């Protein structure tokens, strides 16, 4: 998982990345000086919880992603498994779809990790890193 996170972290338009527990405690994270890491972590857990309840209560199935878009940027969040969530904050609003896709792929890799070999997971991580690199080279 670390190589994948490092790929996102080195992107110049990522202002913050957080992996948080269901209770909002930061497990791992990176944030620029403009982001309060505690608020980022706690808000991620709260928003995911509300999103899960909303999709469930409306009969829309399991939550996939949550996107919050402001005037100067956005935050995309996803549930990785029953205990952990991940969020990416960026000031480049044109990449919202890109980061939603990346978070979905992260969560798929992690949710299947108990059923797959370490070699399978490593191969998926390498493929995802290559995909990120290719998208960045194309300016997406």
Structural class: alpha+beta
Structurally, the number of domains stands at 1
User: Roughly what is the average pLDDT, rounded to an integer?
Assistant: 81
Rg, rounded, reads: 15 Å
Across the major sheet, the strand order is: 2-1-5-4-3
According to CATH, what is the class?
Answer: Alpha Beta
Identify the CATH homologous superfamily: Dynein light chain 2a, cytoplasmic
From the coordinates shown, what is the CATH architecture? 2-Layer Sandwich
Elements, N to C (H/E):
HEEHEEEHH
Instruction: Compute the number of helices.
Output: 4
Compose a concise summary of this entry.
The protein has 140 residues and is α+β, with helices and mostly antiparallel strands. 46% of the residues lie in helices and 24% in strands.
Features:
single chain; 140 residues; alpha+beta; Beta-Lactamase; five-stranded antiparallel beta sheet
Structural write-up:
- The chain is α+β, with helices and mostly antiparallel strands.
- It has a single domain (2-137), classed as 2-Layer Sandwich (Beta-Lactamase), CATH 3.30.450.30.
- It contains 4 helices and 5 strands, in the order αββαβββαα.
- The protein has helices at residues 2-9, 37-57, 96-111, 118-137; strands spanning 14-21, 26-31, 66-70, 73-79, 84-90.
- A 5-stranded antiparallel sheet has the order 2-1-5-4-3, with helices on both faces.
- Strand 3 (66-70) and strand 4 form a beta hairpin.
- Helix 1 packs parallel to helix 4 (118-137) and helix 3 packs antiparallel against helix 4 (118-137).
- The longest helix has 21 residues, at 37-57.
- It is globular, with a radius of gyration of 15 Å.
- The two termini are 22 Å apart.
- The model has no long low-confidence stretch (mean pLDDT 81).
């Amino acid at each position: 998982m670390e190589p994948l996170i490092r790929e996102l972290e080195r992107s110049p338009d990522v202002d913050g990345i957080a992996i948080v527990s269901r209770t909002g405690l930061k497990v791992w994270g990176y944030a620029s000086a403009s982001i309060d890491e505690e608020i980022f972590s706690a808000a991620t857990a709260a928003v995911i919880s509300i999103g899960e309840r909303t999709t469930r209560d409306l009969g829309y199935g399991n939550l996939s992603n949550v996107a919050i878009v402001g005037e100067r940027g956005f935050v995309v969040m996803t549930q990785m498994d029953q205990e952990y969530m991940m969020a990416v904050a960026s000031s480049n609003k044109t990449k919202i779809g890109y980061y939603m896709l990346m978070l979905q792929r992260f969560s798929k890799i992690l949710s299947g990790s108990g059923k797959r070999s370490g070699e399978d997971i490593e191969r998926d991580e390498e493929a995802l890193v290559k995909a990120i690199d290719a998208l960045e080279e194309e300016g997406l």
